[in-house]
Amino acid sequence: MTWGRDLWDQYENIEKHTQSGLDLTERYVKFVKERVDIELNYAKQLRNLSKKYTRRGGKEELDSKFSNHQAFQDILTELNDYAGQREVVAEKLTTMVCAELTRHLHELKIERKGHLAEYKKAQQNLELSFKCMENSKKKFEKEWREAEKAIQQAERIEQESASTKADVDKAKQLSHLKTHIADECKNDYAANLQKYNTEQKGLYYIEIPSIFNKLQDMDERRVVKLAEGYRLFAETEKVVMPIIAKCLDGINTASSKTSEKQDSQLFIELHKTGLVPPADVEFEDYSQGIKPAGSDTAVNQTKLRIGKKGFFNKKRQKLLPNTRKPPDSGYGPPNGQTLSKFGHAPLSYCLLSLRRPLKSVKTPPSLEDFSHLPPEQRRKRLQQSIDEINKELQKEKDQSVALEKMKEVYVSNSQLGDPNSLEPQMTQTCQTIHTLKGKLAKYEAWLSEAGGETNTSAINNNQSRTVPVNTSHNQDNFYEDDDFYEDFDDPLGQCTALYSFDGSGEGTVCMQEGELLTLMEKDQGDGWVRVRRRTGDEGYVPASYVKIS
Predict the structure, then answer these.
(1) How is residue 532 annotated by DSSP?
(2) CA-to-CA distance for 82 and 93, rounded, in angstroms?
(3) pTM score, two decimals?
(4) Which residues, by range, are in coiled-coil regions (predicted)?
(5) 528 pairs with which residues across the strands?
(6) Is the dihedral of CA 289, 290, 293, 298 positive or negative?
(7) Are 355 and 363 in contact (CB under 8 A)?
(8) What is the pLDDT of residues 110-147, one digit of tens each?
(9) Do residues 129 and 195 touch, judged by C-beta distance below 8 A?
(10) Could you give the CA distance from residue 87 to residue 83 in angstroms, rounded to a whole number?
(11) Residue 491 φ/ψ, nearest 5 degrees
(12) Phi, psi angles (nearest 5°) of residue 44
């Protein structure tokens, strides 16, 4: 069944039907565009939501070690990926549905307009042929009536007795002329009628069916393209469903990774101090003449802890004047004042008195031994530092072995390189190894002092992979042989002495006003910097005594 054969007389309905199909396609394109806007807004809101609840460091960075916190961050990551898949759906709908259907719709409109114009033109040609046939018919009718009148007039004249032969001949001649003209009009009318019938037959049996069949083919192609758009509407979802399923599986996996026992254990490890609970307060019987106990009880003693920021807290520092230039270039406070009261002493003197009160007491220049931490936390930090030093030491030993092998290759084949060129690098590596060994022994001593046990598994593994090391010396000889107190740190810059300093305390170095020094270590918050003189002497000086350039 075709439109051209079965609907040859339904031009208006065909026109309305094709226009309705184009309107439907256009409505579907608008529908998909609105769906795309919804998807993009949804993805944007999901990304903003994920960004809003994603941790940004600080306290949240510490909490992220717990499995339930990390699981929530994993969920936010999966949600962000899910938002990306919604954007993929929007992009595919835009390119594969909206853009394609819009282009096809434009082509269909142009094609339909051409077919309708072709139909109207054929209809106009048939109407012109019909008018021409009608005109010839009317002319034939007119001429034939006039011919009939001329014949009747000739017969009447011929029957009249008074008519002359000339009148009769004239009437007959006029009737013959009118009859001839009527016959010509008849032939012309017959020819136009035949032409009209031929054109009408061609219009209704050839042209109109062809045009309507083209419109039918156009509409069917539109339906196929629209159905493809319907299919792609669902197919875009199916394409991303596996990835979305992975995102949801990731959320499920994150939920399964949470462990309440593990989080509790981690919380204990992070905050366990190792301190012993205070003992019972003894009963003091004043009736027996016992003197009142002092204020330093066991309970108070457990609360005497040094904060993370040093010996002074912020409230204590506010009581001290912020004086940079001391009035005296000596080690002690000016005008014979003592350091027993900090009310009017500069901050640098207070730090000096707390850090190096006596020459005979060996205290580290900074809190690198983590003595400001509770016992348990101190042992953990020391063990972490030991592990890091072991890794660095193993790396340097591996490099030393590699340099030895390279030197052997150069010795066996001088064309590959000069063995002497490796000496500076080997010397530097050896010095670094010596420094790390001394640092390792120092941290192990601190760990032993804190009551911890060194994790020797990493050390044993490192020693099994490297060249043999002479361990026959004891710890004291080790410091002497490896120049433990020699430091090979890189300089951090230059500084100028603002005042003279005698360097009488242990670990300090003297300097003269205006002397140019090399800065080896900046102020770590305790008011001291480590410098090196041109003579090679190295030690700590008050930070307020120098100007860093």
Answers:
(1) E
(2) 17
(3) 0.52
(4) 105-174, 379-406
(5) 542
(6) negative
(7) yes
(8) 999 999 999 999 999 999 999 999 999 999 898 888 88
(9) yes
(10) 6
(11) -65, 145
(12) -65, -45
